[in-house]
Amino acid sequence: MDFKLSEEHLMIRDAARDFAKQELLPGVIERDNKQEFPTEQVKKMGELGFLGMMVDPKYGGGGMDALSYAIVVEELSKVDASCSVIVSVNNSLVCYGIEAYGTEEQKQKYLTKLATGESIGAFCLSEPEAGSDATSQKTTAIDMGDHYVLNGTKNWITNGGSADFYLVIAQTDKEKGHRGINAFIVEKTWEGFEVGPKEDKLGIRGSDTHTLNFNDVKVPKENRIGEDGFGFKFAMKTLSGGRIGIAAQALGIAGGAYEMARDYSKIRKAFGTEICNHQAIAFKLADMHLEIEAARYLVYKSAWDKDNGNNYDMSSAMAKLKASKVAMDVTVEAVQVHGGNGFVKEYHVERMMRDAKITQIYEGTSEIQKIVISRGLLRD
Ligand code: CAA
């Protein structure tokens, strides 16, 4: 067992850390206030290779491991969780989904653009009546021979307005239940596809979340991913990797808030001394650090499982469950350490507290992670 990061991982961590400080920190408060999508920042992340980190270089990706990806998402999230969710969805849901299960033609046509950041992707599973209960898909994909016709609505879609390509999950044969579900690559410009209004959110306000409507959208058969009926398993398998990304995001939010609380406690004075000299504050820092470290081991272990060809359904669920709870707890405490200033936007921690909440909800709520973990335990 080796707890040390390799030279390569340290270099990647430092590159992401510098980028986050130099390119994401300026303007992060304004983007949150205005709900402004970080167009320029996404472009730069694409140039740095952050949008297709694990993709094979022959498709324009970085050919890196899942641990590198988790480290980058963690570092970006310390500063701007709106940017890191864009990175996470593009890498581990969209790029991974196409690379692992798509055809060579799909990879050449779509993955090469998604991996370089020339195009952005979105993953469309959730619906008004199918959030946690993901098998209850109401969006239909009727088989017309050489094409499918898509109809329905998708909700809370990250990158909903800014994406170019959408992975859409839909029901082809209701009789077959989850075995009658398919996944498709849909292009934004296709007739009948409509981006609905942008959501006004509590957190990750720089990311762009929309409802999407599909009205008789004609999807060529070659845009189906995998065999007929593979769509639900495709979504589940892809989400297991996505959860490593969201776990890393939660870890980064917690880490960023902790560092701010620690630094603030060294300069803010009360009762004649810096507040870190009061045990009430020092113990909070100790608890925050301890929990972050515990979460980090689970997140990195899950990435390691993926890199080593182990099943990571359970470990990614455990990482996400733990890290998202730590993100919530640590950010609340970081606001507390900052006192009145913690309630003010200028000090960042209130935004981090708002951003943390979504990590307990998207890519499977904490309750869903417990289903995945308990079923994994009881299966054997
Ligand atoms: N890998 C492969 N197959 C899997 C699987 C996995 N990880 N998990 C389940 N399956 C298979 C099962 O084996 C079963 O197939 P068989 O019947 O052939 O054996 C089939 O899928 C159905 O599984 P279940 O019977 O377990 O289905 P369920 O209805 O009980 O639901 C669930 C399972 C885990 C609760 C699932 O519905 C789930 O994960 N829900 C949460 C959905 C979610 O995470 N949504 C996030 C939206 S995307 C998002 O947030 C992205 C973003 O924008 C940030």
From TrEMBL:
Residues 122-217 form the Acyl-CoA oxidase/dehydrogenase middle domain. Keywords: FAD, Flavoprotein, Oxidoreductase. Residues 231-378 form the Acyl-CoA dehydrogenase/oxidase C-terminal domain. Its cofactor is FAD. Its EC number is 1.3.8.10. Gene3D superfamilies: Acyl-CoA dehydrogenase/oxidase, N-terminal domain, Butyryl-CoA Dehydrogenase, subunit A, domain 2, Butyryl-CoA Dehydrogenase, subunit A, domain 3. Residues 6-118 form the Acyl-CoA dehydrogenase/oxidase N-terminal domain. The keyword ATP-binding does not apply. Coiled coil: none annotated. GO terms for molecular function: acyl-CoA dehydrogenase activity; flavin adenine dinucleotide binding. InterPro entries: Acyl-CoA_DH_CS, Acyl-CoA_Oxase/DH_mid-dom, Acyl-CoA_Oxase/DH_mid-dom_sf, AcylCo_DH-like_C, AcylCo_DH/oxidase_C, AcylCoA_DH/ox_N, AcylCoA_DH/ox_N_sf, AcylCoA_DH/oxidase_NM_dom_sf. PANTHER family: ACYL-COA DEHYDROGENASE (PTHR43884), ISOVALERYL-COA DEHYDROGENASE, MITOCHONDRIAL-RELATED (PTHR43884:SF12). Belongs to the acyl-CoA dehydrogenase family. This is Cyclohex-1-ene-1-carbonyl-CoA dehydrogenase. It comes from Patiriisocius marinistellae. The lineage of its organism: Bacteria, Pseudomonadati, Bacteroidota, Flavobacteriia, Flavobacteriales.
